[in-house]
Queue: 2 jobs
Job 1
Amino acid sequence: MSDATRPRLKVLAAMSGGVDSAVAAARAAEAGHDVTGVHLALSANPKSFRTGARGCCTVEDSHDARRAADVIGIPFYVWDLAERFRRDVVEDFVAEYAAGRTPNPCLRCNEKIKFAALLDKALALGFDAVCTGHYAQVVTRPDGSRELHRAADMAKDQSYVLGVLDDRQLAHAMFPLGDTETTKEEIRAEAAARGLFVAKKPDSHDICFIADGDTQGFLAKHLGTAEGDIVDEAGAKLGTHSGAYGFTIGQRKGLRLGNPAGDGTPRYVLDISPVENTVTVGPAASLDIHALTAINPRWCGTTPAAPGPYTAQLRAHGSETPVTARLDGGELHVAFDQPVRGVAPGQAVVLYDGTRVVGSATIATTQRSTPGPSGA
């Protein structure tokens, strides 16, 4: 059974002020559910959260969400979760970069805010489900258990950032946009036909709490500057940097190295050591990863009982790659059928069985196809 065939529910629709969440709320109401709209105030200074089409959660977005709710004909509220967002998302983001890891704040927001803080409050107030504009599907099996699946339209699938949802959260999640193959242009046309002002509103992008899109500047403000060395795989100094947190595994641009590699090939970031404050660079071939270990696994349903073949996705807009995965205590060990690149500690690895999301975990270490500078 999909979202569209569920019985009448009391639904809390999270409305960001964008077109997707507005159409999702409208579809939920049209399906006969008792819908209430809510906008999450996630910043103590919301005017700072938008520059052009960047980000979300501004006063402007709150007004847009309210106007959409008025058109749909549903009650609307603004809930202040700024302190929880600061602690669980923004501070976590800064701490992860300080530790040399590359976090995904959208995934953390879904885990800690939209389907934890928001859902808990919704259930306490008597709501049955939280509705969002994510492109994914919750499917109910004959035995009553629920599964998270990719969206019907793979081009818009957002199941990767929902891979942190557990069975309890899936039982109260509703994604009205996920089971129809509708282009974004058609979603906008639907919004216009419903009289929703946000039909032509640009999509938000990048990190909502970094208003100008300058992640390195944001981190420098919070972590300060600390000059360190940029070295090659043999440890020879090639240049300096003003903060190891300003780099990510696989990065090519912005290294500012005066001398090219001896063979003229580009250099890429291979390793980041916050303790030694060094950044190691080298050739693209040294980025090849054949296995990883991930921690804090979260399962979208039943915990896998035995090692098995899956596919894995390593970033929000990445492709799938075949893997073999096994659990060992609280760790997930993933071996790739073919080497992959651009894998960094702190990222999430999300496992799939066909279109079904099995679960996710946070990458702790990687194993290179050729030995890395620190055995990473």
Note: Residues 105-124 form the longest helix (20 residues).
Job 2
Amino acid sequence: MDFVLVHGTTQSPASWDRVAKLLTTAGHRAIAVDLLTPVDLPVEGYAQHVREQYGGGRPVVVAHSGSGVLLPAIAEALDARAMVWVAAYIPDFAGGRSLRDEARDVLEPDWIGVDPAADPAKASEFLFHDCDPETERQALDSLRSFNPAVLATHPAGPAPEIPSTVIVPTRDRTLRPEWLRRAARERLGVTAIEIDSGHCPHLSRPAELAAILTRRT
């Protein structure tokens, strides 16, 4: 099975290295794509940008954090067999609100306005607080800002028909776990899977996350 791994707004594709290695060892193909481009694109442009980096068919697309805004478009562009939302924002398909409209409901108050790529101490506090020291050092090396306006302002389209799995880190300090559990039920019609981690289980709990991916998709 192919897995297309989509980084979030504060990290590079390297953040997926541990999970990709585990998936490959288990006999799968894992491609960590790069969303960064010289200019900001519309949502459909980022979906095309990902398609240009992937040469297979019908993958499972896994998105982290803010890239949940892009996940439905990417999954449709790749004719994905499934979508996985890892601590990822689930758009308001029925109401059409953007992430900016919902920010105070979705995000932990202390996280709003923080730029972890510019402040390693804040990154450790909010993103990597459950990582061991070696993992934390590697995680800090993966920091990179990717925050085009479209991620905050894009209004949600129709709900995708592609099957979804939602993974909720119970110790997330950025995206509210209780909000994500509710959004999984109300917006995607699924019960979330919980993992005992902070916002980045692909870094702090890669084996557990890889096991969920291979078991549920």
Note: The chain is about 35% helix and 15% strand.
